Amino acid sequence: MNNRSWTTKRDEKRKKLASVQHLVKGKIIDAKNMKEALECLISSGDRVVLEGDNQKQASFLSEALNSVDPKKIHDLHMIMSSISRPDHLTLFEKGIGSKIDFSYAGPQSLRVAQMIEDGMLKMGEIHTYLELYGRLFVDLIPKVALVAAEKADEKGNLYTGSNTEETPTIIEAASFKDGIVIVQVNEIVEELPRVDIPSDWVDFVVQSPEPYQLEALFTRDPSGITELQILMGMMAIRGIYEKHNVQSLNHGIGFNTAAIELLLPTYGESLGLKGKIAKHWTLNPHPTLIPAIESGWVESIHSFGGEVGMERYTAARPDVFFTGKDGKMRSNRALCQVAGQYAVDMFVGSTLQMDYYGNSSTVTSGRLSGFGGAPNMGHNPHGRRHSTPAWLDMITTNSSMERGKKLVVQMFETYGQGNSPVFVESLDAIKVRDEADLATTPVMIYGDDVTHVVTEEGVAYLYKAEGLEERRQALSAIAGVTKLGREQSPKEMRKLRDRGLVALPEDLKVKRTEAKRSLLAAKNVRELVQWSDGLYDPPEKFKNW
Amino acid sequence: MNNRSWTTKRDEKRKKLASVQHLVKGKIIDAKNMKEALECLISSGDRVVLEGDNQKQASFLSEALNSVDPKKIHDLHMIMSSISRPDHLTLFEKGIGSKIDFSYAGPQSLRVAQMIEDGMLKMGEIHTYLELYGRLFVDLIPKVALVAAEKADEKGNLYTGSNTEETPTIIEAASFKDGIVIVQVNEIVEELPRVDIPSDWVDFVVQSPEPYQLEALFTRDPSGITELQILMGMMAIRGIYEKHNVQSLNHGIGFNTAAIELLLPTYGESLGLKGKIAKHWTLNPHPTLIPAIESGWVESIHSFGGEVGMERYTAARPDVFFTGKDGKMRSNRALCQVAGQYAVDMFVGSTLQMDYYGNSSTVTSGRLSGFGGAPNMGHNPHGRRHSTPAWLDMITTNSSMERGKKLVVQMFETYGQGNSPVFVESLDAIKVRDEADLATTPVMIYGDDVTHVVTEEGVAYLYKAEGLEERRQALSAIAGVTKLGREQSPKEMRKLRDRGLVALPEDLKVKRTEAKRSLLAAKNVRELVQWSDGLYDPPEKFKNW
C-alpha cells in the first residue's frame, strides 16, 4: 500500500555488522579491536544498554566504551540498571553519553546528583528494575546491548552460571528488535557447562583481559550485628512472621534482616516455628541464611543473582536453590522480581528516612540513589488475585470488596547513620526533587503501602491504622526519643497497645535481656563457613582468621 | 553438619529418567510410547504444569496425560495458566488430577464451577498470569512440565517461533529445580530456524501426530463492529487518548478496542494525532491493527503471543514487531505482562458487570472464569517510579507525596450480553465467592484502580472523583437508562460536566452523526487482507469470500 521500508533497523544492523568484518573472526572480537569495533557498531544518539547489575558489571565493555572517540560517538542515551562504576559516569563527562535512564546508583549517587546540577547529565527516569526491563520492550528498545557472561563457545552460546541476573532479559530486548548484542566473557571454551543464552541471540563475543567485576553485595558479617538489631529481629519474628503465618518472603540487604536470618535456627526454633514459617524465599544467596538452610528451615530459594563465595555452597544444595544440569546456580533478576512482587507474602527492608506518615526514602540530601527493586517488592500489588493466610490476615473490614495485602515491613533503629533520627518531618527527597527537577518526589516506599514498622521500641501495625492521624500516632509510639516519639502520651500509648496498633517487646513476650549476640546461630563469618561444611568461600575482605 | 541429603530432587529425577530408557532414543520419545513414559515419569501427587496458554495448547500431551491409568497416577496438582480444552477437566473426572491452580478458564468456566460444587475439583487459587509464573519459582515449583513448541532438533533445542508465549518461563521453573521437561513439537528437524530454548533445559521431545492446538483468539472481524462501538471509540480517542497524551498502551480483546484500532487511521488522522499518540503497544498482533500500522501510526509492538494468520505479516514488518534472526516474530508472555503492567500509560478493557462504585468482574453466575492478565495490567502499579505525561496527568492534588497513575479504562455498552445491564448493584462474583468457597470475591478490576469508564453515553473521569459517592454519581451520569442511570438529575449532570468528571459526546466535540461504519479503516476481514498487502492469512472461519 505504500513504499516505505519496514526493515530499516535490520538493514542498518546488516550494514554495521558488515563494517566490522575486518575486526572479527566469526562472532569473536579480539579485545584489542574493541574500541574500533564499538566505533563502527555504535552511532551517536543510539540507545545503549550497558550491563551494570547490582553486583555484576560489564566492566571491560564499560572501559572500552569510555575509550571511543567522543568526536565519533557522542550523545548516547545510556540505560543502566545500576550506575556502579566511576567510568559509568566518566562516559558523560566525555560527552560520549548525554542522557541516562537507570534504577540504582548506590556508590555513585552523589556524583549523579552533582552532574545533573552541572548540566553534564540529562536525567531520564528513575525506575525499579522491573519497570526498566519492561520499557526495554516498549519505549526504550535498545540499539546496542553491552553485557557480561562467564563463558562463551565459538558459536556465541553463553554460560552465565550463578550470575545470570538480567543478562538474558537485556539481550532478548535488543536481539529480537535488530539491536546489536556484544558480550564480554571471562573465557571462550569449546564446550559450555550448560547453555543459558542461545548463540542466535548474540552478535559478538569478546574475551575480556580481566574477569568481569563482581561485588559481594549481599554478604553481612555477623560480627557487625548489634544487640539492638537482635531485639528488633526477635520482635519481627514474634510480632510479624509468627503472628501472620508468613510462608514466603523477600529480605533486603542489611544487618537487620541478617539478624533475623541468624535468629531463625535459635530463637525461632525455641518458639517451635521451624517448618511453619519462612519456608520460601526470593533473594540472593545470603551467607547469613546458611545456618537456617542447614537446620532445615528453608524449602526453596529463587535468586535475582548470585553472591561471591556462595558458588560451591549453592551447587551442593540443589534441593533448596535453583541449579542447572551442570550443578551451578541459576538466577534470573526479572523473574525473581516478578516472584518477589507477586508471589511472596512479605517484603522486609530498611530506609534512611521515614516521614511521620510512613513514607520513606533512601534518597537523601545531594544523593540521587534510586531504589533498585525495593519499590517493586515493597508495595501492595493491586493486581494480585491469589490469597495466602498472611495476605488475608491484613483484612480489617468485612466489605465484600475487601482483599488481602502484601506485608511490607520497614525495620530500622530510631537513630540511624550519623546518629540522626530516621523519622523526619519532611523527607530530603522533596528537596532533591526540586533540585534535580524531577516530576515527582523520589519516594522509595509510600506510607499507604507499608503494613508494619519495626524499631528498637516496638512494632507499629500500620495496616490497622484508620487514616493518616492514626498512622502518625502508631509511628510516634515506636519513635523513641526522636521529636516524633516525644509526641506520645502514656495514655495514648495504652490505647494503641490495647487496640493492637502497637506492640512493645513485653506485648510480644520478647525479653530485652535475651537479646544477646549469643543468640545468633553464627557470630562471625568463620562460623558461617563451619555451618556450610566448608562449602562457603568468603571473599578475602571478610576473612580475619 | 548433618547427614540429610540435599539432592533428593536430583536423585529422584535421575531414577525417573533411567526408568524410561527403554522407551526413548536420546531425548526423543515416540508418540506411541507417551502414555507409558508418562506413567514412569510422573508420580501421584506431583505438581504438573500443563501448557495451556490463551491460544496455544500442549494438546497431544494433554490427551496423553488423560490416557494414563488413574490407578497408577492420581491426585496430581495441576497448574494451567488457561483451562481451555475439555480434556483439561476430564483429567479431574478421572481422578488423575485433584487440585488446580489457574489463571483463566474461558470456555470451560461453567464446568469448572460445577466440578468444584460437585467436589470433583479442589480449587487452588485464581491468579493473573504473572502471579502464577511468580509462584512457579516460589511455592508452586513444578515436578513436571508438559509444554508445546513448533520444532525441535535431535538434541532437544527448541524453536517456539511466533508463539513463544509462556513456554520458556514454565521450562525455566521446572528445569532448574530438577523437574522433568517434556515438549511436544510439530516437527523434529535437523537444523532449527533459530533456538528459542536451549536443549540443556529440555529432557524429552515428542513429535506429536497433530500440530499443537492454536486458536485465533485476538481476531475480530470488523464487520461485527457496531456504530455504537464506533461512537464510543471516537469518545475514547478524543476524551482519553488525545486528552492525556497516551503514548504507550495495551488493548484487551474485543470489538470496542478493535473499533479504536480501526478509527486511528481515519478519525485519529483527521484530528492530526498521527505520530502524537498510541505509538508503543503491548499486545498480540491484532489483525485490526494492520491499517494503523500501515498508515505509520505504530512504532513498536511487543506481544504476549502470536495470532493465527499474522505470521507472514509480522515477519514482513520487523521495524514494528519483535522478530528473530529467522524473521519470525518473538513473543514472551511473562515479559510482555511485565511491560504491560509497568511500562505503558494505559490499559483498555471491557467487562460483563460493573457495580455502582466501579468494581468489575467477568465472573458471573455459575461461571468461574478467572481473569488472565487483565488485573495485572488493569491496576495502578504502586511500584512504578518513572513518569510519563499521561501518568502525571492523573495527579489531582499538589501534595509533595503525590504521584501519577496508570490509566485503567473500562469500555462497555450500558446493556451487554443478553440485553442485561452491565451496571449492577451487586456483582454476581460475590455469590460465586460464597458458592465456590473462595477467600475473596473474584473481582477483575477494583473500582479504586479504574480511572475512566466509557459507555455509549459518555466518559466518566473516575480519577477525579473524591470519595465513593462521587464515583457513583459519575458512573450514574453515563449509565443511560439502567437503574443506576435513572438516579441522575439534570442539575447534577450539569455539575459533573462542569467539573470535568463526566464528558458527553458534545463536550468532546464528537458528533453522533459521524459515528458511521464508513469511518472504519477496514470494514471487513477482506479489507484487512488488502491493507496487509496480502500478507495477512485469516483463518478459514473469518473468510466469506
UniProtKB/TrEMBL annotation, chains A, B:
SUPFAM superfamilies noted in UniProt: NagB/RpiA/CoA transferase-like
Gene3D superfamilies linked: Glutaconate Coenzyme A-transferase (3.40.1080.10)
MF GO annotations: transferase activity
The organism of origin for this protein: Priestia filamentosa
Protein name (record): Malonate decarboxylase subunit alpha
Origin: domain of life: Bacteria
Organismal lineage: Bacteria, Bacillati, Bacillota, Bacilli, Bacillales
InterPro entries: MadA, NagB/RpiA_transferase-like
